[in-house]
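[recover] target loaded
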């Protein structure tokens, strides 16, 4: 049986997936733009999603492709399109040419509302490329993901130490620990009938998700702080995004595009799109997961 081909293996989600694959004895062949240290059970392929020869090497003889790589922050629409649409198209073509039947694509809940952001549009477009292929596909739309190695939610943990956690206007969202997402992706590799040609929206099992205030207070509890949670209006967030762009240019974390989907009030996973319970269920409670994440941040001197 061939290895599982993985893109995005060096990122936050990808690293968690490599940990789970190692624990399960699953051989991985992973694409990486830069040279990587040797890792048991992992064959590294040098290249990126624009490198056709590298993609051919990646998928040759693979039993499945897990497409995790993606652009979550870009200075313009072209950056999102190149990374998320062109990259997915090239990988689907490589998998098809190599006759790799199974293809699991990590999209985003942002794809539900493509009109809100260039990021969401690019993810929706990429989903359509996967859906119209001849591959045996499953699409996973994760909600907000957190856990060790994550640098996005880290900023909220740092804010919580000062007892103030600014959030977008009131709304609700679902959450999921990265280890639970990694388990789901590996569970989808065999291509069981219940998962074929399906879009899944996995979460932590909390009905109705979390309000922004509840999430902020849960982070405060994880760092043992009571926190104040001001909700910043859209116009304020856009102003902060402009300042961030001036200061950090293409490295800005808060962009106008991000404000577009951050201020949407409903990022709760749809119960009808939950993975079948006999295939996968979340194992990490969010309270425990946030506390463990805070401990990991402290151990790495990130917090």
């Amino acid at each position: 049986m061939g290895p599982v081909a993985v893109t995005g293996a060096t990122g936050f989600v990808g690293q968690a997936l490599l940990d789970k694959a190692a624990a399960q004895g699953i051989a991985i062949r992973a694409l990486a733009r830069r040279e990587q240290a040797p890792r048991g059970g992992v064959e590294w392929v040098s290249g990126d999603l624009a490198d056709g020869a590298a993609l051919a090497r990646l998928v040759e003889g693979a039993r499945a492709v897990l497409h995790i790589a993606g652009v979550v922050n870009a200075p313009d629409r072209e950056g999102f399109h190149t990374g998320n649409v062109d990259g997915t198209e090239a990988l689907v073509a490589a998998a098809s040419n190599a006759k790799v039947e199974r293809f699991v694509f990590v999209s985003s809940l942002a794809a539900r509302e493509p009109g809100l952001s260039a990021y969401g549009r690019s993810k929706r477009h990429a989903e359509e490329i996967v859906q119209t292929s001849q591959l045996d596909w499953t699409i996973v739309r994760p909600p907000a993901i957190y856990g060790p190695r994550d640098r996005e939610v880290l900023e909220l943990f740092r804010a919580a130490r000062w007892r103030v956690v600014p959030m977008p206007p009131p709304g609700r969202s679902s959450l999921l620990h990265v280890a639970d997402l990694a388990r789901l992706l590996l569970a989808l590799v065999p291509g069981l009938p219940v998962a074929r040609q399906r879009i899944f929206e996995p979460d932590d099992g909390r009905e109705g998700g979390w309000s922004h205030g509840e999430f902020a207070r849960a982070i405060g509890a994880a760092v043992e702080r009571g926190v104040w949670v001001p909700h910043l209006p859209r116009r304020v967030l856009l102003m902060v995004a402009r300042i961030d762009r001036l200061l950090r240019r293409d490295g800005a974390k808060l962009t106008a595009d991000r404000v577009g989907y951050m201020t949407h009030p409903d990022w709760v996973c749809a119960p009808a799109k939950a993975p079948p319970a006999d295939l996968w269920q979340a194992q990490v409670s969010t309270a425990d997961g946030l506390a463990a994440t805070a401990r990991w941040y402290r151990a790495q001197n990130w917090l």
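[recover] notes: The chain has ten helices and twelve strands.
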